[in-house]
Amino acid sequence: MDFTVFALSSSTFLSSPLRPKTHLNLNLNLNKRAAQLPFRVRVSFPQCDPSLPPAVQTFWQWLRDEGVVSSKTIVKPALVPEGMGLVAHRDIARNEVVLEVPKRLWINPDAVSASDIGNVCSGLKPWVSVALFLLREKSRDDSNWRLYLDILPQTTNSTVFWSEEELDELQGTQLLSTTMGVKEYVQSEFQKVEEEIILPNKQLFPSPITLDDFFWAFGILRSRAFSRLRGQSLVLIPLADFINHSSRVTTEDHAWEIKGAAGLFSWDYLFSIRSPLSVKAGEQVFIQYDINKSNAELALDYGFIESKADRNAFTLTLQISESDPFYEDKLDIAESNGMGETAFFDIFLDCSLPAQMIPYLRLVAIGGTDAFLLESIFRNSIWGFLDLPVSRANEELICRVIRDACKSALSAYPTTIEEDEKLKESELNPRLEIAVGIRAGEKKVLQHIDGIFKERELELDTLEYYQERRLKDLGLSGELGDIIFWEPK
């Protein structure tokens, strides 16, 4: 989710900002007519479906009371295949404003700072402070966000909420290790904040907060918080988080933070969302959550995956070994080119390899007679050399290492791609569907990587290596690659 515009905009609550003189003239005209004719105004609000849960209907009424929902509101909540969503009250044009929510209703680090727990939370990570704020507000009957908190889900299909049995279906996947790492991180943060903030300040946190509670808050923020707004690291925005994701939306340019009317007589920053697609009345409004995330990231953050092939990814981790006799030289070269001792490369199905991956691989593999390239005389130019094959031995080594790594990773999965594809034909529960999709996707990417380096192996005899290029540059090699010997007369 991103923003591209900071500008004054007409609000959904007032059709345009009224200048004082215009406002005065309007009142005078109304007063004249009031003496002659009865004056009535009929305001029609989009009605909430009476079949929706009472908590959602009460939440909708709260939004009307707060001025978020007005006669100009063009969406309303509805039950959709994803759970809850927003559907069009009338036809919506592409890029038309769908809703605007004033900053006073946002839940973000600013809201924490302005609250009773602001002082004790000032040194915490933003997400931790907002998580504590959420939990404290959830325990208070008089919270300003009570009606919003009441409609938040108790869990999602994010893998951090899966049982051990469900996680077993992710055996062999990178998503499993990532999920376990995230769970350990959240548990560590909870233990620290419990010891340093919650227990020493029982007057501020009278209701007990458990690890499960903390995971709930983490899951809510991970799945519903917007980010990348101006000055916002994360922010929950009531109603805006009803909008679901669709792969049909191919842009993230739908969210703006603007300054505008937040009521009849007030101005505020507004979170504004425009529909990236044209929508017919009764259809659901969609946005794109994050166009660059892999299926594993979508499963971890939101609890769903896409069927698009290029959402499947596998991360290769490459490292310069400390036992390498040229460790210091290689590390210096890597750091001089914006990399480090360890490098992570996300490889997506049917996509080309990341640009820096092959040069880094060649650097890590340099040794033997190629080691002269690591000398200081080449320090400023070696990265350019690494864009092209160094030597047959070097190229052969990187092919063998990567292909062996792919085969090893593939052997760790308890099922084959064919077995996973067969399972997809069955009616699976949402979490098993995610697990099977992730397993199959990762294996396809590993086969894709193996195929790239298998083809490279077959081309080894046809490639031009550094020594040959150098001889050509010096005019010591013929067109067919044969070395030209110069004999003095």
Features:
alpha+beta, 3-stranded antiparallel β-sheet, single chain, 489 residues, 16 helices, disordered N terminus
Note down, in words, how this protein is organized.
The chain is an alpha+beta fold and 489 residues long. The protein has a domain at 308-473: Rubisco LSMT, substrate-binding domain (set domain protein methyltransferase, domain 2, Alpha-Beta Complex). The chain is 38% helix and 10% strand. The protein is built from 16 helices and nine strands. Strands 3-6-5 form a three-stranded antiparallel sheet, with no helix packed on it. Strands 1-2 form a two-stranded antiparallel sheet. A two-stranded parallel sheet has the order 4-7. Strand 1 and strand 2 form a beta hairpin. It starts with 19 loop residues before the first helix and ends in a 16-residue tail after the last helix. Residues 1-43 have low confidence and may be disordered.
Brief overview:
The protein has 16 helices and 9 strands. With 489 residues, it is α+β, with helices and mostly antiparallel strands. The protein is elongated.
How is the secondary structure organized here?
Blueprint: H1 20-34, H2 54-65, E1 75-80, E2 83-88, E3 97-102, H3 109-113, H4 126-138, H5 146-149, H6 164-168, H7 174-198, H8 211-224, E4 244-245, E5 255-261, E6 267-274, E7 286-287, H9 295-301, E8 313-319, H10 327-336, E9 342-348, H11 357-365, H12 382-385, H13 392-411, H14 417-424, H15 430-458, H16 466-473
Parallel strand pairs: 4-7
Antiparallel strand pairs: 1-2, 3-6, 5-6, 8-9
Helix pairs in contact: 4-8, 7-8, 13-15, 14-15
